[in-house]
Amino acid sequence: MALYKDGGFLSQDFGSAFDANNASHPGTLAPYAGIYRCTGCGHEIAIACGHVMPPQNHHSHGLLSGPILWQLIVAAHH
Ligand SMILES: [Zn+2]
């Protein structure tokens, strides 16, 4: 789970970009810069704007965890 110290730097947003059904596939262009979590195992990554999501073999992901999909959990605002 992503951590933070000062909540004053974060604002809650209910946009659909954060929905699990809008999660990104491995190797696709990241729609937003920020922190993403694997919907299957909870592994978290940070990615910059314009970068590609990690490939299928990026992290240890058990077969029972289902497919790797990257869900946006914190978006960098610029
Ligand atoms: Zn995973």
Helix and strand run: EEE
Instruction: Please work out how many helical segments DSSP would assign.
Output: 0
Write down the overall mean pLDDT.
95
Rg over C-alpha atoms, rounded to the nearest angstrom: 13 Å
Form type: globular
Strand order of the largest sheet: 2-1-3
What percentage of amino acids are in beta strands? Answer: 15-25%
Amount of helix: under 10%
Tell me the total number of β-strands: 3
Largest sheet, in brief, is: 3 strands, antiparallel
Distance between the amino and carboxyl termini: 23 Å
Organism: Acetobacter lovaniensis
Protein name: Protein L
Q: Could you walk me through the main structural features you see in this protein, from its secondary elements to its overall organization?
A:
This is Protein L. It comes from Acetobacter lovaniensis. The chain has strands spanning 34-38, 44-47, 70-75. The chain has 78 residues and is mainly β. It has a domain at 20-57 and 66-78. A hairpin with a 5-residue loop joins strand 1 (34-38) and strand 2. It starts with 33 loop residues before the first strand and ends with a strand.
What's the structural blueprint in terms of helices and strands?
Blueprint: E1 34-38, E2 44-47, E3 70-75
Antiparallel strand pairs: 1-2, 1-3
Residues 38, 40-41, 43, 59, 61, 65, 68 line the site of zinc ion.
Protein name: Protein L
Organism: Acetobacter lovaniensis
